[in-house]
Every structure is written in structure tokens, then in C-alpha cells.
Design brief:
Blueprint: E1 6-9, H1 15-24, E2 26-29, H2 38-47, E3 50-52, H3 61-64, E4 73-75, H4 86-92, E5 95-97, H5 104-119, H6 122-130, E6 151-155, H7 159-172, E7 175-179, H8 186-192, E8 194-196, H9 200-206, E9 209-212, H10 226-231, E10 237-240, H11 249-257, E11 263-266, H12 277-280, E12 285-287, H13 296-314
Parallel strand pairs: 1-2, 1-3, 3-4, 4-5, 6-7, 6-9, 7-8, 9-10, 10-11, 11-12
The chain binds (2R)-2,3-dihydroxypropanoic acid (DGY).
(2R)-2,3-dihydroxypropanoic acid is lined by residues 54-55, 78-80, 103, 292-293.
Length: 324
């Protein structure tokens, strides 16, 4: 019988990482790649030493407190961990790790993609062309908005927001404003060209584009609600690569339908993979299926970062990326 730690990956990972892990651990794969339900997750907690979930798994108290639990470490594949009940993990003495850093630029690139797609109406243009409705070039055809000199406001100013600021400022000449739990260092502010605004309401009111980069969870639930959408400048754009529930989607549909704001670019949704039906009808909504970190290089790096945490834990060393 193998003395290697037993680990379970709740979804398929890149081949390279699955191979790497299989050489070092006794790995259970979810061959179907269908999300596991709570009962299956609870069973897995009894049969493994570590569980490696993703954002599609709800690791709540009932899963963590599974009777006869054997799991000691939750090695999350992803930087965000609002799908894991961290308080319950603390109470039960279960360690949790995540995968920061390795997806920073890839996710910031996707925020920039949404910034360009919304302001230049790229989804709308492609749909028009594919539908055979394009009648040819003309000076007033599908005009968007230029970025140079416009103000990009970031809510949350962690690694991904700062990378987004850097790209928007240095590549597109945007001015940057931000609101976060604390003020960044002067060096970061200077390098990203960012100005701190100490109220979310004020930031919503003065920016041409608002991009969300705060964590999910109770403290940011519907942070962007009907009132805050009303505060936005007419013709402004909203981007979300953070977590869906940060925006009240029903209120966003109303704001987009009335054209109070020009467009929204979304990569995340309140009830993934369900998308609010109102959003699907709107030409001025750019909708991507949670692709923030989806490059082969980054998804492999994320898996390898989980591997590093597993290796450290089972060698009795400190976790590389401890959440708790
Ligand atoms: C992350 O890393 O948080 C991504 O959104 C996937 O979970």
C-alpha cells in the first residue's frame, strides 16, 4: 500500500500538473470534470489527506466538518477563496492555501481586454458582421470611446488591480484613480500613476471606467448596487473580473437598458454558470465565461503553485501561500 499522501483534484487540471502530482502523490482525479456535489465532497474529505478545489466548489461548514474527516489541507486552485468557509476551517484546524502572483498579469490582461471590447464595441461589431448586417465603412459607424486621458477607477488595489493600472496608464495613457482598504505606498502610486480616492461613491462618480478588483464575500456583496450605478457618469463603463456578487446584476441590466452607462464588460456572474437573462439581450454588455486566468501557462503555473503548497505541507514545512 502506498504511504504517499492521498489528494483529490475536484476538476481536471493541465496534463503537465496532473502528471507532476501523480509522480508524488496518490491522486484521485474527477475524470468527468463535472462539479462535485456536497455529498461527494464530504466523502472525499473522509478518504483523502488534502482536497484541491476550485471556485466552482462550495467548501462550506458542512463539507469541512464531515464526520470522520481525514483532510488536513485545502489546497485551493485559485487566488480567490470566498467559496471556502475560512472561519469554519480555522475552527476545525484545517489549513488552507491559495495561488497568488502567478495569475496577476493574465487576469489584468483580461480586464484590459474587456476595457477595449467595451469602449470599442468589439462584441457588437463582430455580431453585426457575422450576421451579414455590415453595410460598409462610414464616418459615423459604430463609434466607441478613446482611452487616452480618460480616468480608470479601480475598486480594490491589490496585485491584479495594480497590474491593470500599470497597463492602462503606460500603454493607453489613462489616468488612474483607486479605492482600497488601505492606501498604497507612494512608490506604487507613482509607478502606476494612481490617485487614492477615499470613498467608493466618489470614485464611481468621477471615473470614465470603473473596474472591480475587490474580493468576493459578505463585505462586498452588491457593493455596486442601483444607487452606485446611478452615481456613475453618463456614458461610463463598468468592468468586473473580480467576483459576480459584487454587482447587483438586476440593477446593472436596468442601468444598461436605459443607457445611463454606456457598457459593461463582465467575466464573472452572481450565480455562475447562470447569466442573468437580461444581460444576454443587451448589445452593450460584453460577456466572457470566467476566463480571467485561462491561459495554458497560467493554469499550469496555478497547478504548480498548489503542488508547492502540498509538498511543503506534507514535508512539515511552512505553507508557501497560507490563507489559514
Ligand atoms: C481566481 O483565482 O480567483 C479565479 O477567479 C479562479 O478561481
Amino acid at each position: 500500500m502506498s504511504a504517499r499522501p492521498r489528494i483529490l483534484l475536484t476538476r481536471r487540471w493541465t496534463e503537465e500538473v496532473e502528471r507532476y502530482l501523480a509522480e508524488r502523490f496518490d491522486v484521485t482525479l474527477n475524470d468527468s470534470d463535472v462539479p462535485m456535489n456536497a455529498a461527494a465532497l464530504r466523502d472525499a474529505m473522509r478518504d483523502h489527506d488534502a482536497l484541491c478545489p476550485t471556485v466552482t466548489d462550495r467548501i462550506d461548514d458542512s463539507v469541512l466538518a464531515a464526520e470522520s474527516r481525514r483532510v488536513q489541507l485545502i489546497g485551493n486552485f485559485g487566488v480567490g477563496y470566498n467559496h471556502i468557509d475560512i472561519e469554519a476551517a480555522k475552527r476545525l484546524g484545517i489549513r488552507v492555501s491559495n495561488t497568488p502572483d502567478v495569475l496577476t498579469d493574465t487576469t489584468a490582461d483580461l480586464a484590459i481586454l474587456l476595457l477595449l471590447m467595451t469602449t470599442r464595441r468589439a462584441g457588437e461589431g463582430e455580431r453585426e458582421l457575422r450576421a451579414g448586417r455590415w453595410t460598409g465603412w462610414r464616418p459615423t459607424h459604430m463609434m466607441g470611446q478613446s482611452l487616452a486621458g480618460k480616468v480608470l477607477g479601480l475598486i480594490g488595489f491589490g496585485r491584479i488591480a495594480q497590474a491593470t493600472a500599470r497597463k492602462a496608464h503606460h500603454a493607453f495613457g489613462m489616468r488612474i484613480a483607486y479605492n482600497g482598504r488601505r492606501r498604497a505606498s507612494t512608490a506604487v502610486e507613482q509607478e502606476t500613476g494612481a490617485e487614492f480616492i477615499d470613498s467608493v461613491d466618489e470614485l464611481m462618480a468621477v471615473c470614465d471606467v470603473v473596474s472591480l478588483h475587490c474580493p468576493g464575500g459578505a463585505s462586498t456583496f452588491h457593493l455596486v448596487n442601483a444607487e452606485r450605478l446611478r452615481l456613475m457618469k453618463p456614458g461610463a463603463v463598468l468592468i468586473n473580473t473580480a467576483r459576480g456578487p459584487v454587482i447587483d446584476e438586476a440593477a446593472l441590466v436596468t442601468a444598461l437598458t436605459g443607457r445611463h452607462i454606456a457598457a459593461a464588460g463582465l467575466d464573472v456572474y452572481e450565480e455562475e454558470p447562470r447569466v442573468h437573462p437580461g444581460l444576454l439581450q443587451l448589445e452593450n454588455a460584453v460577456l466572457l465565461p470566467h476566463l480571467g486566468s485561462a491561459t495554458v501557462e497560467t493554469r499550469t503555473a496555478m497547478g504548480m503553485r498548489v503542488a508547492q503548497n502540498l509538498e511543503a505541507y506534507f514535508a512539515g514545512a511552512p505553507l508557501r501561500d497560507p490563507v489559514v
